[in-house]
């Protein structure tokens, strides 16, 4: 019942409603502020009690029925003040009371011989002691006394063989744990047994207790890791406190090895790690490297070190005097890099947050360089170093030289001058750096070799070294086995292939560019092939598939890819279309471009160009008409070219290509109308020198594209022989098709006659392809 309606309580409402009210009010737990207000209102009602004895419950107000005092009788009113007062205890007193309660329960279970109960209560007592040590509270004397008494009870137990299996296991567990605790507090236990006070030896073992408290806390956290209903933020807070208390390098390293993974566990079920926790993890990893580098002569963190069953067992030094601790600092850096990639995949790429988050890549790269230097000094296996080198390569292979130089300068700025890398020196330029990193990876397993080779090719293609990239691609023979590789390697292969095609386009190698880009540019799955999106209608997309996608800043611009492919196809297709007047066997460089051009020709009305494809098609029609200047204007109007660092040089290259292909198209189109064609006239129309015109025409003659000669006397092109007219071309085409059809009918008729004869003879014979065969016959 609502409290609002409870205030209107009436004696006529019946006993049932009264019981409901009393039950609800007794079950509610009020806050401390509400209880204090209730006590004040009680005193006010008691003062006014003499003057309003006959007013009934309604005169006391609605709050009266919400108090536990409502249930009291007149005889208990005099004691209400004493019972209402509560004793406020500090956290230390509460902790001591909790420990005393645990000891009392242990004593009771000890008297009853219930060792299973003793195990549970002793664990609870140990957790309380750990909390006390974390709060810098000295171990109380009564704990030492209880520990000594429990040790004596264990020693006095004689009928162990008569115990049940569960009792025997519990007894052995208690004996081991008590033995360990007695060893930690040996001095105080001996003092207590000698008849002295357990507090006498407390100052002597305080440092030992603090150290044991660190490892006890680490053990407790390690046991609860991965379990449900565990407050990881509380564990992180405790570990941060332990990091301040840790004194020795072993203690500091142990705390960081526990704290850094728990920071990553916090965001295990989230889309990505929060910025606060990511920055804290990055600071912890740097602090771990500080400890490792400062104590490099005595401590080493290795993936190949021997594991220990006990966290506080410090490994023995090896022959060189170095204590090898099991762990991987490089693994933490790799996980930090993965978390950054997850966040970049989840954040809106067009938001300001993405740009701010991308700045943290420099922090990761600096950590990778630091981890690589540490691995070079300590790693026993080359695979550990190769993983870090590959990560470092993944951060630079897709960048231009200027950005790589900036990242290197920032990464090495925080490293002392005395430290240098044996793999890639500090002062290396971008080419030397990439070559050195890839050279190390070429000696590793096949996956590392493939990724290193493809990254190497991508880097050269990105930085306009086409012939180097092409030769490496051809010599690697990756195209023969790439279909058996992992999806990430296949994506890298496609990215390197596209970048090679774009590099060829920038270099003016139009035919090579169009050939390389054709397969991916014409595919409807181009996003998926380049690792920039999943299948549009796929129902089986998993979280792992989404995590394999590349962050936005690593994407290849698909509009730029389309512009380069369409422009290259136009420069190849338009002269071929014009040359078909004398070649009735059609040759096609790009079927997709020709289909687009045919669709454009079928339109009754074509408006101004709106997108990249429209601009290229308008330029193609202008080039067909011989207006290369207008075609150049259409191509230059495409704004996507500005994404290239050398956009002006690219536009100048396209101008030159349009002049040459415009000249070829003009000659192919009008060769049937001229017997001679002036070279000076062609040079003036296409703004080329006479030498360039002669070179283009000579190449056409050499390739048997036209039947002509160059006359030096008249400075003209003399066409020889008779070119086929359009009617003659169509006649030859029709004649060839009729011949093919006649030959096919003859073969089918012969097969049908054999089938008919077999049927008349009563044989069970069914000719293959019977449906089409019967139709023709």
Describe the structure.
With 777 residues, the chain is mainly α. The protein has six domains: 3-84, no CATH class; 91-201, no CATH class; 235-419, no CATH class; 445-549, no CATH class; 559-719, no CATH class; 730-776. 63% of the residues lie in helices and 2% in strands. It has 34 helices and five strands. The chain has a three-stranded antiparallel beta sheet. Helix 11 (232-245) packs antiparallel against helix 12 (249-266) and helix 17 packs parallel to helix 20. The chain starts with a helix and ends with a helix.
Q: Brief description of this entry?
A:
With 777 residues, the protein is an all-alpha fold.
Based on the model shown, name its key terms.
777 residues, disordered N terminus, two-stranded parallel ribbon, disordered C terminus, mainly alpha
Task: Describe how the helices and strands are arranged.
Layout: H1 3-6, H2 15-27, H3 32-47, H4 80-84, H5 91-112, H6 115-134, H7 141-156, H8 165-184, H9 186-193, H10 206-224, H11 232-245, H12 249-266, H13 275-294, E1 299-302, E2 323-326, H14 329-346, H15 352-358, H16 361-378, H17 382-394, H18 401-413, H19 430-441, H20 446-462, H21 466-476, H22 487-506, H23 510-521, H24 526-529, H25 543-547, H26 558-579, H27 591-601, H28 612-624, H29 628-636, H30 647-670, E3 676-678, H31 679-686, H32 690-702, E4 708-711, E5 716-719, H33 726-760, H34 770-776
Parallel strand pairs: 1-2
Antiparallel strand pairs: 3-5, 4-5
